[in-house]
Amino acid sequence: MRVLLVEDDPVLGQVLQRGLREDGYGTDLVGTVAAADLQLGVDEYDAVVLDLGLPDGDGLGLCRQIRARGLPTAVVILTARDTLSDKVAGLDSGADDYLVKPFDYPELAARLRAVLRRPRTAVPPVLAVGDIRLDPATHTVWRGAIVIPLTAREFALLQYLLLHAGRVISRSELLEHVWDAHYDGTSNVVDAHVANLRRKLDLPGDAAPIATVRGVGFGIGLPE
């Protein structure tokens, strides 16, 4: 496993690098956003241990770039920022875990092992197909530059379709994942919500790209 350690404190950085290497990780140490960005463009890493307060920028921006590029690299934020809003911002930027300084190295090592055990699929912080974008953190949907107000159920429905863009989703799968286990109505409710979602996303002369596959279900971003 290869780890990129982004830490501008040279003493802490060297201590962590030594610990990670002793644990069997091939570890590269850099101290700036620019250097980290360069390394990520040259080499493949299984994980990034990322400080936020870096001399040339905020580590949150780097985390967002990693996710925007579609890299499956695990990201563990290691920072002195300890407020709830800081933690929420870090996780919403695409980080897999968030650890506050001061910390004990065994905990960092355990958290790193945990995130590396997870199957890696790169999910960007903002989901998009064509000119439709959905931000789960702010619960906002745009079509182009236009903000589209949706109900909570419509938002969840669109989010599920975007997460599985390119394939057809059956009505029963949508009922399982967008409604709850206690729903005992008919699948017609899916058709009604999809119709409402399409209507809200439609633009003059440009219909919403949610396709109906007769007898199967619905999809977005399907091959033409």
Give the gist of this structure.
With 224 residues, the chain is α/β, with parallel strands linked by helices. It is built from eight helices and 14 strands.
Write the layout of secondary structure elements.
Elements (H helix, E strand, L loop, with lengths): L1 E5 L3 H13 L3 E5 L2 H10 L4 E4 L2 E2 L2 E2 H10 L5 E6 L4 H9 L4 E4 L4 H13 L9 E3 L2 E4 L4 E4 L2 E2 L4 H12 L5 E2 H8 L9 H14 L8 E4 L3 E4 L4
Parallel strand pairs: 1-2, 1-3, 3-6, 6-7
Antiparallel strand pairs: 4-5, 8-9, 9-10, 10-11, 12-14, 13-14
Structural notes for this entry:
This protein has 224 residues and is of the alpha/beta class. It contains eight helices and 14 strands. Strands 2-1-3-6-7 form a five-stranded parallel sheet, sandwiched between helices. It has a four-stranded antiparallel sheet with strand order 8-9-10-11, with helices on one face. A three-stranded antiparallel sheet has the order 12-14-13. The longest helix has 14 residues, at 188-201. The chain is elongated, with a radius of gyration of 21 Å.
Strand order of the main beta sheet, please? Answer: 2-1-3-6-7
Q: Given the helix and strand composition, which structural class is it?
A: alpha/beta
Instruction: Measure the end-to-end span.
Output: 40 Å
The tally of helices reads 8
Roughly what is the average pLDDT, rounded to an integer? 90
Question: Could you give a short account of the major beta sheet?
Answer: 5 strands, parallel
Instruction: Estimate the global geometry from the Cα principal axes.
Output: elongated
- The percent range for helix content is 25-40%
Topology order in helix (H) and strand (E) letters: EHEHEEEHEHEHEEEEHEHHEE
Tell me the fraction of residues in β-strands, as a range: 15-25%
Which stretches of 5+ consecutive residues score pLDDT under 50?
none
Strand tally, please? 14
The gyration radius over C-alpha positions equals: 21 Å
